[in-house]
Design a protein that fits this description.
Largest sheet of chain A: 9 strands, mixed
CATH superfamily of chain A: Survival protein SurE-like phosphatase/nucleotidase
Low-confidence stretches of chain A: none
CATH topology of chain A: Stationary-phase Survival Protein Sure Homolog, Chain: A
Helix content of chain A: 10-25%
Order of helices and strands of chain A: EHEEEHEHHEHEEEEEEHEH
CATH architecture of chain A: 3-Layer(aba) Sandwich
CATH class of chain A: Alpha Beta
Radius of gyration of chain A: 19 Å
Strand order of the largest sheet of chain A: 3-4-2-1-5-6-7-13-8
Structural class of chain A: alpha/beta
Distance between the termini of chain A: 57 Å
Number of helices of chain A: 7
Oligomer: homodimer
Number of domains of chain A: 1
Mean pLDDT of chain A: 96
Chain lengths: 253, 253
């Protein structure tokens, strides 16, 4: 039986990056896509409990089932693996995201939320992102790397509980220098909201902000991307800071 | 000058747990509250980029400013620290959540999203949750522990980049056995969506699911809570699984 590959994203079922990933995945196996109806960037690991969800068949063909769901990327992974995949997926993919999910962006990302949910459910999973927010971005230069990583993970697996956060620099064909295994850079977004005044004189705020990376490390994902490499960060869902457990024992009573 | 304590949550500005935390915090310093207008449980680290946000003054008194914001808990922390706190907060609190944020729940939790955002911005932060979803839950038995932890963290600080995920067992006064410093238990939610049929014969799905904890460890948060202790897990925002970096070097090209 061909491998089954489940795909989601956070840019929505009609995003160009999703179609690009679907085409590559179809080279390796049967494909089920379940993606949000609309763009849900920045939805992180959100789930929808306050209203029920609907699922719609978008496109069906031999070895390809594409569904949309009016929930979050995490909802899509739960729903698809439990109710819409004909068998447990051999691999779960998310993306290709329009825009970086490197560094601290991983924690805001719905694309990576889907990947982490798949990991928790026990599936091998990879999230792919291209460093371009352009809805018509050119995904071609990164395709050989996406293909390579899917093939390798299908063949060799991943350490238990580990998934991959893959970011691709925005470079023309042939200028990407290879793949680096990295850690997540230390960084944050600053000056996040800008105030405006509405026609009635009342204030409102738009999310904005500038990215500040203070990580001088040369084995970080920001370093790899700035230097023309595809960055691969092994990620997991255990937020425990183990080295702090000893340091805060004085909090006990 | 008195310490400034910023408080948020994900149950909304009118939640009983928020008021309980505000009362305890006011013993230690001036308080700014900025909380979501409505219940936003399960919103994780979501941010709002697709529409502008509004902020409303709810209650103002000497040393107490309470605002609501129509964004997520993470939006609240960004907005409050940048535009509504009269000085940088000495401590950021979130909760007291109605319901557990132990184990893997930390990753779905908007309450803990607020805590992790504060951590990224460089502030000391603690999230508190009570293991009861009752809107009228009794927070009293946990108050001495909340008070103790706030006092200790204000006095001694926390390791850099580390915040605390504190969960309180649902026990009568006097039956809580103390505080344990723990790691996050390995667990997941299964069978997440249940299908129903609408009056027109079309399917829809409600989020549900059962919690499965497979972690036999006696220094985990689930163990502590089951055995009557307040669990304190030091958490951070670096999702890198460092021990896997060496193991996946064979993915490079």
């Amino acid at each position: 039986m061909r491998p089954l590959i489940l795909i989601s994203n956070d840019d929505g079922v009609n995003a160009k990056g999703l179609h690009a990933l679907e085409e590559i995945a179809a080279e390796f196996g049967d494909v089920v896509v379940m993606a949000p109806l609309n763009n849900l960037s920045g939805q992180s690991h959100s789930i929808t409990g306050i209203r029920p969800l609907r699922v719609r068949e978008e496109r069906m063909a031999e070895g390809r089932c594409v569904y949309s769901c009016d929930g979050t990327p995490v909802d899509c992974i739960k729903m698809a693996t439990e109710h819409f995949c004909p068998r447990p997926p051999d691999l779960v993919l998310s993306g290709i995201n329009h825009g970086s999910n490197s560094s601290i962006n991983v924690i805001y990302s719905g694309t990576m939320g889907a990947v982490l949910e798949a990991t928790m459910l026990g599936f091998k999973a990879i999230g792919f992102s291209l460093l371009s927010h352009n809805p018509d971005a050119d995904f071609e230069p990164g395709v050989p790397y996406v293909r390579h990583l899917i093939g390798q993970v299908l063949q060799k697996g991943l350490p238990e509980g580990v998934s991959l956060n893959v970011n691709i620099p925005k470079l023309p064909k042939g200028e990407i220098r290879g793949i680096r295994i990295c850690h997540q850079s230390k960084a944050q977004w600053r000056d996040s909201f800008t105030q405006r005044i509405d026609p009635q004189g009342r204030p409102y705020w738009w999310l904005t902000g500038k990215f500040e990376c203070n990580d001088p490390s040369t084995d970080s994902d920001e370093w790899a991307l700035t230097n023309g490499y595809v960055s691969v960060v092994p990620v997991h869902t255990d937020l425990t800071r183990y080295d702090a457990i000893g340091k805060i024992q004085n909090l006990t009573i």
